Amino acid sequence: MAAPVISDNPLYQLLREGEVDSFNAKVAAGETVDLTGCDFRHLNLQGLNARGLDFSNSYFRQADLRGVDFSQCISLEGASIHGAKISGVYFPSELGAEEIRLSLEHGTRLRYRR
After folding, report:
1. How far is CA 77 from the centre of its chain?
2. Buried residues in 92-110 as b, exposed as e (16+ CB within 10 A)
């Protein structure tokens, strides 16, 4: 598994700078971004509209994900949420509670039920 990427994509950089509303507006306007394998460590992503985004193999260690609805994202498979704030997060139905707990507490990569 490759190390998490800090992309130079302008939309990803908006998230790194805490500009979640601007990110959401640009994506809603049709701009695209590849977020697979990205580094979201320690970022505050509250308010993120995750619909249609692919977070496969991304790294969310100690990120603030409170209230984010990931149920309509393309994928969280292979992502890690170790130590993240996840109160109110809506995870995809393919992820069981035990899988989420293992990732949150031990940093394991999320695996979808098939």
Report:
1. 10
2. beebeeebbebbbeeeebb
Residue 68 neighbours by CB under 8 Å, 6+ apart: 45, 46, 47, 48, 50, 89, 90
Give the tens place of pLDDT for each residue, 61-89: 999 999 999 999 999 999 999 999 999 99
Domain range annotation of the chain: 1-114
* Long-range contacts, stretch 11-20, CB < 8 angstroms, 24+ apart: 12/38, 15/40, 15/43, 15/45, 15/48, 16/43, 18/43, 18/44, 20/44, 20/45, 20/46, 20/47, 20/48
Side chain identity, residue 90: Y
At 1, the pLDDT band (50, 70, 90 cuts) reads: low
